[in-house]
Amino acid sequence: MYNNQEAHAMFPPQGSNFLGATAPPASMFDNVPGYEGTAMGGGGGYLPPPAPAYPPPAPEPSPTQPEWNIPSISEDTAREAFRLFVSNHCCWSSGPAKDGMITAMDSFNTYRYRLETFTEARATEWAHEQYNGQPVNAYTQPAPGPWDIQVQPPAHFQEQSTHVMVPYTSSVKECHECLGRGREPCSECAGAGNKVCWVCNGAGVRTGDDQCNHCNGRGRENCSACQGHGSKECDACRGKRQLHVYIQLNVKWTNNKDDFVVEQSSGLKVENLNSVSGKELFKDTQYLVFPVMGFPDPAVGQAAERLVREHQNKYSQSARILQQRQTIELIPITKVTYKWKGGTHTYFVYGNEFLVSTEDYPATCCCTVM
User: Fold this and answer.
1) More reliable by pLDDT, 214 or 174
2) Rounded to whole angstroms, how far apart are CA atoms 353 and 138?
3) CB neighbours (10 Å) of residue 237?
4) Could you tell me whether strands 279-286 and 183-185 are parallel, antiparallel, or unpaired per DSSP bridges?
5) CB 9 within 8 A of CB 230
6) In whole angstroms, what is the distance from residue 283 CA to residue 305 CA?
7) Which region among 55-69, 147-161, 212-226, 301-315 has the lowest average model confidence (pLDDT)?
8) Which of the residues 226, 269, 320, 350 could staple to 333 if both were Cys, CB 3.0 to 4.6 A apart?
9) 303-338 exposure pattern, b = at least 16 Cβ within 10 A, e = fewer
10) Integer Cα distance of 242 and 113 in angstroms
């Protein structure tokens, strides 16, 4: 027979009130003018910015640029870039890179237009933390609007996010997780303080009539997670029984970027150019840029006009545009043709970094790990 204390700990406590609430009740959040509809955990999306108090400055047309050309790389530069590339492939023989005879070097320079739009987006949500005596100020003054709160932005085009407590929205509420008790039922044992013995599976005996030594024949063992108490300190309020509740402003700065690369007939895949830089021919930074005009390659001007229009229409709906920047780079591409052991092969050297790409290296082999 078990004593009364042991018997009481055998089953979960009765009554649903002990289990506490699983979600904050609506009454936990004050009705703050200007923040109607703000919910716990957000979910409402980013807030559209207010119309500017003054007309934005008119974009200034960017100056035209003369056509630039990058001198072709030397044969020594092409060969050294190829050797370094091959040395990074453990299963490739160095023969073609060392002994191959270069027969032709053709330049296929191409332009890359890039548009960056730096934006600031804001959203609000109800938040809470354990109450440790923080000052509260709900309703002492009207809360400022989400876009009226001063927040220090990072340097232009540097992505970042921050969280700010909205002034005059903080209050103290009873913890909804533990209903103000400071403790909540243990999830491991459902508040019972003990669990079915894992050795005898609750039978109290093992083989035959031998009593289970692990639980001393009880069929249950004390819960190690709560040390047999059946409850633990509330995770939400950390035993304080109260929460500091307030509206949180979430601010996110994003650098929205799009590239356009003019088609070139070298045979090099365009995606290879994503990892290299080129010679910067043009840079224009303004609050709102004007599409570049008069560039020698008309495809660049067409791409600029399309992307500027798309960015200003898309990002002004849910964020505030802080700055735009457009650049044009000339990316060098050299197609190298060489002969090795009677065969003709090619590779590409591209970008300021002299990266190499080839799809027909003639001396590859398979590595076998023993």
Assistant:
1) 174
2) 58
3) 26
4) unpaired
5) yes
6) 16
7) 55-69
8) 350
9) bbeebbeebeeebeeebbbebbbbbbbbbbbbbbeb
10) 56
Q: What is the 3-state secondary structure (H, E, C) of 46-60?
A: CECCCCCCCCCCCCC
The token duo for 4 is 């009364």
% of residues, the chain, pLDDT over 70: 88
pLDDT value of position 79: 96
In the structure encoding, which two tokens stand for residue 35, read together? 């923040």
d(CA 307, CA 286): 15
- Beta-bridge partners for 224: none
Predicted structure pTM score: 0.77
Q: Which residues of 194-216 are buried (b: 16+ CB within 10 A; e: fewer)?
A: bbebeebeeeeeeeeeeebeebe
CB 240 within 8 A of CB 314: no
Express each pLDDT in 278-309 by its tens digit. 999 999 999 999 998 888 889 999 999 999 99
Using a 10 angstrom Cβ sphere, with 0-12 exposed, 13-18 middle and 19 or more buried, the burial of residue 7 is exposed
- Report the alpha-carbon distance of residue 125 to residue 361 in Å, rounded: 57
Q: How far apart are CA 260 and CA 116, in angstroms?
A: 12
Q: Nearest Cα to 330, choosing from 346, 357, 350, 347?
A: 350
Three-state secondary structure along the chain? CCCHHHHHCCCCCCCHHHHCCCCCCHHHCCCCCCCCCCCECCCCCCECCCCCCCCCCCCCCCCCCCCCCCCCCCHHHHHHHHHHHHHCCCCECCHHHHHCEEEEEEECCEEEEEEEEEEEEEEEEEEEEECCCCCCCCCCCCCCCCCCCCCCCCCCCCCEEEEEECCCCCEEEECCCCCCCCEEECCCCCCCCEEECCCCCCCCECCCCCECCCCCCCCEEECCCCCCCCEEECCCCCCCCEEEEEEEEEEEEEEEEEEEECCCCCCCCHHHHHHCCCEEEEEEEECCCCCCCCCCCHHHHHHHHHHHHHHHHHHCCCCEEEEEEEEEEEECEEEEEEEECCEEEEEEEECCCCEEECCCCCCECCCCCC
